[in-house]
Amino acid sequence: MKKRLSEKIKFKIIAFYLIILIAFALFTTPLNEILPGYKKILFSTDILISDYIKIGGLGSAFINSGLLGLIALLFIKINKTKLNGLSIAAIFTISGFSLFGKNTINVIPIIIGVWFYSIYQKENFNKFIIPALFGTALAPMVSQIASIFNFSITGIIFGTLLGIIIGFIIPPIASHVIVAHEGFNLYNIGFTAGIIGTILISVFRAFNFDFQGHLIWSTNFTKPIFIFLCLYFTSMIIIGYLLANQNNQSIKNLKKLWKRPGRAVTDFVISDGFPLTLINMGIMGLAYTLLIILIKAPLNGPVVGGIFTIVGFSAFGKHPFNTGPVVIGVLLGALTKGWTLQNPSFILALLFSTTLAPIAGFFGSISGIIAGFLHLTVVGNLVYLHGGLNLYNNGFSGGLVATFLYPLLDGLKKER
Question: Labelling 350: which of 40, 156, 295, 319 has CA 20 to 30 A away?
Answer without folding.
Answer: 40
